Amino acid sequence: MQRSRRRLSCFIFSLFFFASGIKAQQGYSRNDVLDCNYPMKAAPSPSYLYTCSEPRQHSCHAFLIYKSRQGYNSTETISHLLRSDSSELARINNVSNPYIFPTNKEVIVPVNCSCSGQYYYQAITFYVIDSDDTYYSLANDQYQGLSSCSALMGENLYDAENLSVGLKLLVPLRCACPTRNQSRDGVKYLLTYSINENDTIPDISERFNVSVKESLAANGFTDHEEAVIYPNTTLLIPLQSEPLSSQTIILEPIVYAPPPVSTLSTVNGEPKRSKKKLHFGLGAGVASLAVLCLLSLLLRRCHRKKMGRIKGK
Ligand SMILES: *[C@@H]1O[C@H](CO)[C@@H](O)[C@H](O)[C@H]1NC(C)=O
Ligand SMILES: *[C@@H]1O[C@H](CO)[C@@H](O)[C@H](O)[C@H]1NC(C)=O
Ligand SMILES: *[C@@H]1O[C@H](CO)[C@@H](O)[C@H](O)[C@H]1NC(C)=O
Ligand SMILES: *[C@@H]1O[C@H](CO)[C@@H](O)[C@H](O)[C@H]1NC(C)=O
Ligand SMILES: *[C@@H]1O[C@H](CO)[C@@H](O)[C@H](O)[C@H]1NC(C)=O
Ligand SMILES: *[C@@H]1O[C@H](CO)[C@@H](O)[C@H](O)[C@H]1NC(C)=O
Ligand SMILES: *[C@@H]1O[C@H](CO)[C@@H](O)[C@H](O)[C@H]1NC(C)=O
Ligand SMILES: *[C@@H]1O[C@H](CO)[C@@H](O)[C@H](O)[C@H]1NC(C)=O
Questions:
Q1: What InterPro entries would the database entry show (predicted)?
Q2: What is the pLDDT of residues 193-222, one digit of tens each?
Q3: Which member of 85, 106, 282, 295 has the greatest number of CB atoms within 10 A?
Q4: Which residue's alpha carbon is at the smallest distance from atom 4 of ligand 1?
Q5: Where are the domains of the chain?
């Protein structure tokens, strides 16, 4: 019953997919990605995973940023968790293998990203359920937003309420290959970056030596004003060369996690905002001046008429 329903929605899904055409650039998920029931009611969406784009590559090399933590703090444990190659991981992070990273260090993880007949790009890894794991906690806590709750539920037939210790789950990690336009512009890799509190697109772009414009475009933003980003969701950073260990940082431990908003305009948009206000101010000024003029004109005409009447009398 459930399976056939699932198949039906997959079918509707694919209809949507072909109807909508293959989008050449990826869109930003917004915080819809945190909704565990997102996929079954909508067209292919970045809230699930990134969609396969033209040229329809079978696969490509891609990178993820994973923040080291207790239990997953070495080249071996991180590469095992994300199914990467530990010696490649060590090389790209400029460390020996094995190596223990300090807590909350951003670790660059090389992965094979593939489309392989699916609608979505994914780097596949496997995870064995431990106590207290839920699809939500796996996507957002264990995998730090590098997977999505709905994609986990879509790829695994186990009921969400019935995840028992020892079950092996397939975990699709969010990745993508460069689009034709990006390749033309020299982009070789896309890096999946999971947003932290207080991150802004200009900060992240600067750190990875990418223009803000390209970063915005790579995530389907057309202008600065709409670029509102949320923690635990991913951005794609379009890289012209492999990421460097010198571009990674050690994050401050997270003290609290409100559902917050990090806007481009908090940093870069300041002058834009105030300009807008200025325009508004000017507009209001001009308008009130016009009203005043009109009023005084009317008053004068009135006065003249009265005067005329008086004169005429
Ligand atoms: C790709 O680039 C071409 C030429 O600049 C442009 O016309 C087209 O809209 C771009 N496609 C996308 C999906 O951005
Ligand atoms: C790394 O994780 C292990 C647990 O797997 C822990 O015992 C160790 O203290 C951690 N090291 C650092 C530097 O955080
Ligand atoms: C990724 O693909 C390359 C060949 O395309 C292969 O040599 C490598 O082992 C793969 N890495 C992983 C982690 O599967
Ligand atoms: C790698 O680390 C060493 C020090 O451990 C440093 O001298 C070197 O410049 C680093 N290389 C890169 C590419 O960051
Ligand atoms: C991401 O989600 C997890 C699970 O809800 C939470 O523990 C973590 O604090 C969130 N991270 C951020 C940066 O908000
Ligand atoms: C939970 O899983 C067990 C065995 O794995 C199965 O017998 C049971 O019916 C499942 N319960 C639900 C509500 O799916
Ligand atoms: C984010 O910014 C606020 C306000 O500046 C600050 O209080 C908070 O500690 C910051 N959080 C992180 C994780 O840096
Ligand atoms: C940043 O990228 C440009 C090309 O876009 C390159 O010429 C420059 O060397 C890069 N800077 C660093 C520090 O990697």
A1: LysM, LysM2_CERK1_LYK3_4_5, LysM3_LYK4_5, LysM_dom_sf, NFP_LYK_LysM1, Plant_RLK_LysM
A2: 999 999 999 999 999 999 999 999 999 998
A3: 106
A4: 181
A5: 13-247
